[in-house]
Design a protein that fits this description.
2 strands; two-stranded antiparallel ribbon
Length: 382
Amino acid sequence: KHETVEGYRRYFSQIVGFFVVEDHILHVTQGLVTRTYTDELWNMALSKIIAVLRTHSSYCNDPDLVLELKNLIVVFADTLQGYGFPVNRLFDLLFEIRDQYNETLLKKWSGLFRDIFEADNYSPIPVANEEEYKIVISKFPFQDSELDKQSFPKKLPMSQSVPQIYIQVKEFIYASLKFSESLHRSSTEIDDMLRKSTNLLLTRTLSSCLQNLIKKPHIGLTELVQIIINTTHLELACKYLEDFISNITNISQVTVHTARLYGLSTFKDARHAAEGEIYTKLNQKIDEFIQIADYDWTMSESDGRASGYLMDLINFLRSTFQVFTHLPGKVAQTACMSACQHLSTSLMQMLLDTELKQISMGAIQQFNLDVIQCELYSCCYS
């Protein structure tokens, strides 16, 4: 990287040196060179310089190196502009390179987000005392008057990835800002650039990481519930990111042309995906219990109590729905209805199985006891 930067520095220094000498000759001699000659020479050189820089920057995947290149181009352009050479095309090129820079940032932050999600334990953050609590809320804007009333130790509803993701979004905004500096653009334009690049981070990079996380095999029901809670808090934090950008650029959010952050849709989409995955995993778990059901369809009389597999299933559902109490009411209710409907359909299919040739009265009574147990359970959650 250092050698590459030094190579660019030598490249620009040699070009600057050449045109400074040409400009000096133009001003201290009579008729040796003309302004028309130096302008034509500069335009020809500029076309080749832009072609070289465009090619080289397109292959660069290191955001720090792209930033170094941008800084060298700015110094190069400002220097030659001081000698009267037109440099607008170089600043136009910088806007192209800015898009490349943002792409390298998005790629880098995708890896950072993945690492954060991998390291998360998907459990509420425990805080033992006031000092630990202040450390967390200094990193993430969290307010809960009910939680404030509780004594220590206590737990914050989100898991550790939430403040870490929030911090990294702010770091991305700072990194994106670095490229906008010295481009001779207005605060409004810089504000617009920052919001657009942050929107890409939220709607493309973070959204993709969340969607991939939700689909991972090791993410179970408890983790999915925590992800739904996490995305709710990240969504609420979007307004603070809006303020953060406004404070950097000194552009009010009420300005007509101010772009909004689209984080809300990112986190809503992730929640919907997590909810769908909860329903799917619940049904898969029910299927596992149903598969171990071993009815003796010829039994002379019932056991007098619900089948063991069904009691295990109901105990599983009961403990699972205890976790769901942290979810919004509609999600928990839909999950319960979905589970009951799936269980009902599975029991019906078992009874109407075409391979089942005969059923004794004892087996029907046993099956009926199981259905009654299901009804009793569903009444508790209806």
